[in-house]
Amino acid sequence: MTGKPNEYLDNFNPIVSLAKRRGFIFQASEIYGGVGSTWDYGPLGVELKRNIKEAWWNSMVHSRDDIVGLDSAIIQNPKVWEASGHIEGFSDPLVECKDCHQRFRADHVDLDQCPSCGAKGRFTPPRQFNLMFKTFLGPVENESNIAYLRPETAQGIFTNFENVRVSSRKKLPFGIAQIGKSFRNEITPGNFIFRTREFEQMEMEYFVNPDQGSESLEYWKNERLAWYIDLGMLPERLRLREHEGDELAHYAKAVFDIEYLFPMGWSELEGIAYRGDFDLRQHQEHSGKKLEYFDNETDSRFIPHVVEPASGVDRSLLAFLVDAYEEEEVNDQKRVFLKLDPRLAPFKVAVLPLSKNSDLIGKARIVYDLIKADRLTDFDDTQSIGKRYRRQDEIGTPVCVTIDFDTVEKDDSVTLRDRDTMEQIRVPIADLRSELANRF
Ligand code: GAP
Q: 265, 293, 305, 435: most buried, per Cβ within 10 A?
């Protein structure tokens, strides 16, 4: 499929600098020179991230009666990772340049020439490198105390299948959803927050009768694609791509990726996998605990099949930022704005007194107090009004409310400015709450 990338972004640089300038994302440990492609979320980034997670949780858990939530531990019994196949098989092929000793993922590099020092034919043969982070439980660092940071949240769901089923009295089909941190010692992290070693996942395991697996896969493919579009992503920058042949993960019967057209090209945003009964069967065998389901209607016993939509919070956030980024010429000046869906925007409204006049600031405070309980609102009385509008545009605030001299001297009304059209209308303060409620 030929998509249409964001014409204003050849690379991530404008997004990286906006994210830092406005307080969305900072390099972790920046004052020490950073650390291995990890990132911290600033005051606005944390709001955007929370809004994405809330939108996902609403659509997957709160708005449905067939899916419940879970928050399982990052550190599990190492036998979990034996059963899941991660100790044996969760690895990428690694090569090292014999001249400059840089390491690369063999499938991400031209093996004829080192991209770092240019040496030809100097790579070591590929060896499998396990991506799980190892640590030790307790004070003694020996083999028997090895533990792993989870590389996916999914396994905590499978090991709790029976606990959740019994305690929530769910019948098939039903799902268990979880949002949380995962860790992978990626050989080549990069592209800003696209691939990092510490990241957050939003995963849901949907348990079905084995003969409903394919139908459920179809359902979740459509449902998940629609989620991104409903939150404002342009459909022409999204596509579904099926995994073929040896690309299929060891646990999967079929996988479809939802891909987004990032500046570096089509790349995975979310994986939707039909995992069959692989995980529950493995855990049943390795733990010795029955993980079968008894179906009253058909009077049969079986291990449920699973369809799994697995998305990344950070990767979704990056895609929402890229998708929302717009530039235009206004009075010979470049205007940058983030056309974020109001549900995702960190601030929904900003209250701005036109100048530092104390009457205007006093009135603006009254307006701010009137509306701030309804939705997250910013108050800004620094700098010139032009600079403040530019800031609110860049952080994606859908509506600015400006208090001017007419507000205090004449009409007790304020100016509402729309982020996308820059259209301004006058609204009496008495009608402000209902006007804003209509817009959101
Ligand atoms: N439980 C299945 C699973 O983990 P995955 O395709 O490896 O599947 C799901 O991961 C999603 O998690 C990816 O589509 C991506 O959004 C996110 N993700 C995976 N590895 C990541 C990394 N190193 N950095 C950021 N996000 C990552």
A: 305
